[in-house]
Amino acid sequence: MAERSFSNDELRLYELLQQFLCLSDSTDVAGTLILIGPKGSIVGDCTLSAPDIEAATDALLKLNIQRGDAIDQPADPLPEVDPDDVKQMISALQDLADGDL
Length: 101
Description:
Number of helices: 3
Shape: globular
Distance between the termini: 21 Å
Helix content: 40-55%
Order of helices and strands: HEEHH
Largest sheet: 2 strands, antiparallel
Radius of gyration: 17 Å
Number of strands: 2
Structural class: alpha+beta
Strand order of the largest sheet: 1-2
């Protein structure tokens, strides 16, 4: 079997996924996180409990506040989203959830 090489972006996303997986060993599911690589491939997924989501949100909020305090200029506006792209992503995620991949 040929070995697949991973890009730096994919490796960083995989590391991020590992951090989410290490939040807790709770089996309660409040949400599922799916990480998709820069070329559209799924890096992985994990389920998160409500306390996991709260902990991750609080940590990211703290980091964003610290970064915002360090920068005196406003953030760039969010990019425009193509409705067709959103429909395709929702369809792909639904297929994944239904096990149709």
